[in-house]
Amino acid sequence: MSQRKIIALTAPSGSGKTTLARRVLEAFPEMRFSVSVTTRPPRPGEKDGVHYHFISEEDFRRRIAAGDLLEYEEVYPGRFYGTLVSEVREATREHPVLLDIDVKGAENVKRIFGDDALVVFIRPPSLEVLAERLRRRNTESEETLRHRLERAAHELAYADRFDAVVVNDDLDRATEETIRLIRSFLER
Ligand code: 5GP
């Protein structure tokens, strides 16, 4: 029996997933966060090697060719994101690994790891709330905001393909529900 334990949180951008991920990591100190590689530039406050490994597109392609990526997606036009094999290889029951990835990546993770993975879809209460949150975050231009919202509308259709759906209507409640789901997955 495999002891590998991988947890993926997936959601349309702006669903509060990143905050949730941080809280999950606080609740499970033994859990490690899988730091992805990305070609998008860092946002203010983001640290290389902590939030992402920020790399060039050329480097990204080299990583693909070298077989370093478990999965990768062009999440937005010209913006590549990928999970490093090295980040999930050591995932165990004692040290589970948490992934914060897009819905296509999450589908791939489920396909690769099956019952060793718990994929939780975080759903915003509505597209309107999502648009509002993204605007307030103020990290996007109108164009990337539009891309993100178009993609979110599409991604909501994926919700029922995953192990669980958590509606992020209230962050505290959603966090508790997510933690409960993860705890029972880890004990299984
Ligand atoms: P952001 O630019 O807001 O940090 O992330 C955009 C989207 O890319 C989010 O949905 C995030 O979960 C996703 N993402 C981050 N890392 C990865 C990854 O390694 N693989 C995939 N498929 N998606 C990722």
What are the low-pLDDT stretches, counting only 5+ consecutive residues below 50?
Answer: none
Q: Report the mean per-residue pLDDT as an integer.
A: 91
**What is the CA-based Rg, rounded?**
16 Å
CATH fold type: Rossmann fold
The number of E-state strands comes to: 9
Tell me, briefly, the overall form. Answer: globular
Strand arrangement in the largest pleated sheet: 2-7-1-8-9
Q: What is the H/E order? A: EHEEEHEEHEHEHHEH
The CA-CA distance between the termini, in Å, is 12 Å
Query: Strand fraction band?
Result: 15-25%
Number of helices: 7
Give your account of this protein's structure:
By secondary structure, the chain is α/β, with parallel strands linked by helices. The chain has one domain (6-187): P-loop containing nucleotide triphosphate hydrolases (Rossmann fold). The protein has helices at 17-27, 57-65, 85-88, 103-113, 127-137, 142-156, 171-187, and strands spanning 6-10, 32-33, 36-38, 52-54, 69-76, 79-84, 97-101, 117-123, 164-167. 32% of the residues are buried. Bound molecules: guanosine-5'-monophosphate. Residues 13, 36, 40, 71, 73, 75, 81-83, 100-102, 104-105 line the site of guanosine-5'-monophosphate.
